[in-house]
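Tokens in:
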């Protein structure tokens, strides 16, 4: 999907008023059938009228049957606490121009910190689950998903694999909390 958008909108990189066009939301979280595609056009400059006109031009270039939700902001508004999609864009947003996440462009990596508890599990269930995480005769889920064991009951997984890891926790009926974090690279 990202490659299609690169074909349709890649030449916009030459526009000096644009910083980037970002895809975010369910379409980049790994959801197999996203209901819509969320795009954020980040402008370096331009009046509201000029930006709205540019959005109309961009919409005409997109050739898809999916519903497109396209928004625009100025670069400095990206960091404003009142910008409702800020967290999703910073943690998950992927540039249509170069395929990098916004976090990477800013020197960070988007991750999800999973804090889980095995207190309610039997000894056998705990051992089995630890084999799932760390592996027995091969790589466990943490390694396969490029994650890191930070402490007992605390695992950090790159955001691109977070839904997959969450499915593992649910499959084994593990109680957990999740926290989205940016980590400096």
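Residues out:
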């Amino acid at each position: 999907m990202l490659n299609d958008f690169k074909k349709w909108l890649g030449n916009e990189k030459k526009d000096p008023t644009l910083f980037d066009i970002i895809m975010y939301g369910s379409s980049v979280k790994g959801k197999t059938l996203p209901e819509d595609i969320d795009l954020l056009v980040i402008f370096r400059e331009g009046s509201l009228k000029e930006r709205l006109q540019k959005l109309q031009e961009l919409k005409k270039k997109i050739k898809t049957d999916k519903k497109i939700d396209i928004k625009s902001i100025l670069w400095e508004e990206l960091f404003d606490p009142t910008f409702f999609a800020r967290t999703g864009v910073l943690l998950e947003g992927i540039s249509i121009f170069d395929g990098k996440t916004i976090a990477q462009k800013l020197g960070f990596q988007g991750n999800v910190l999973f804090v889980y508890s095995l207190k309610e599990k039997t000894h056998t269930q705990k051992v089995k689950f630890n084999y799932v995480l760390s592996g027995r005769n091969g790589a466990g889920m943490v390694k396969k998903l490029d994650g890191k064991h930070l402490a007992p009951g605390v695992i950090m997984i790159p955001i691109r694999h977070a839904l997959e890891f969450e499915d593992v926790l649910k499959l084994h009926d593990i109680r957990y909390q999740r926290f989205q974090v940016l980590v400096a690279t």
